[in-house]
Amino acid sequence: MSELKSAWEIAQEKANRLGKLSAEEKEQQERQRYRQIGQVLAQKWLDSSQRLDMTAELNKHEEKERALIKQAIIEHLVEAIEFTPIQGINSAKRAIEAIGSLGSELQPKAEEIGQFVQEYEMAEQKIRQELESNYRETLHQLRISGTAVDAINIEADHQWQLARQRLVEAFAPRLNDLKQALISTS
Fold this sequence. Notes:
By secondary structure, the protein is mainly α. The protein has helices spanning about 5-20, 25-45, 55-60, 65-80, 85-100, 105-140, 145-150, 160-185. The radius of gyration is 25 Å and the shape is elongated.
């Protein structure tokens, strides 16, 4: 009759058959763990209404770990910088702010990206105002006026969506170049 074994004993036997992790595999697991920590910190920054002190959070870890975590934070925040509707632009601004707070070596690139995002916002606002003005003029010619004209929903308009898409396509290559330069700076 065979001897009954506990689940732990069975698992231990399987682990022994598989062998131990190599130093490279252990290091890779550690890097992955620190990348996850960095991604969580970056997401906390983006999701929280309160400002997270990234430097204090990084200082909770050893210097070797800090570099990996910081790199993961930067990469996650850079992904959040996109030309999307208003909520996305605000998220991009928060990401830029967080990146700038991670170190003085990152501030010039973060400021450059911030200025570029502002240029995009101004171009988008100009297109929005032109389209709204055209719609108001059309409505005025049709003798439609009053409070019904005050709130034009430009977001639902096909012309707005096309104009915005063309604007994003024009700005996206430069934004991607700036983001890559920022990642290589870190």
